[in-house]
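Problem: given the chain below (231 residues), write out its structure.
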Amino acid sequence: MHIVRAGETLYGISFRFGLRYQDVAAWNGIGDPYTIEIGQRLRLRPPGSMTSPPRPDNGSIALSTPRRPHPLSPSAPRPVNPSPGSPTAAPPATVTTPPARPPASTVGAPSWRWPAQGQIIGRYVSGDQTQQGINIAGSAGQPILAAADGIVVYSGAGLVGYGELIIIKHSDEWLSAYAHNRRRLVMEGGRVKSGDVIAEMGKTGAIREMLHFEIRRNGKPVDPLAFLPKP
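Solution.
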């Protein structure tokens, strides 16, 4: 059970606990536009569920350096021609590779663009609560851009570890988050287009100027580099 505090929204609470906002709304009988009140008690799991409540995500304030790529696996050895008199091995079966299909994780995704220019100093690590997105280094006041069309569903500083944070809803399935801003330039409920300036880069909740950027699908973080265009 979560007790709503000043400045919190249903979207922000759902984001913090890694839940779909639709689920949290349904579990608590809250309809669109998902208005909540200070002191309201919210279920964070289905009624009657015996599972442990989700643990809050305390943000991504740790800086990490890009990991070295894994070395490629050595190629398989070439078949050796048998020497005279040795038994002849049966030829290997021919394997037909089916046509490549787009990864399931990218099907139906928005058309993403980079939210800021700069060096990637922290990468997404699956299952790591401190690194659920990427960190892009930059300078104070540098423009932060909306990564896709959407509606601003959170603009505030109520999530520990994220500093000044903006969350944009792109569809019922996709959200993006922009943390550590110096100044937020959009308000909740505002519509943005891909490339619109939504904030100025800063270091609120961080140790240096940077953008912490996350993409979430159905409430769960995914690797932004799997969706952003190749630099």
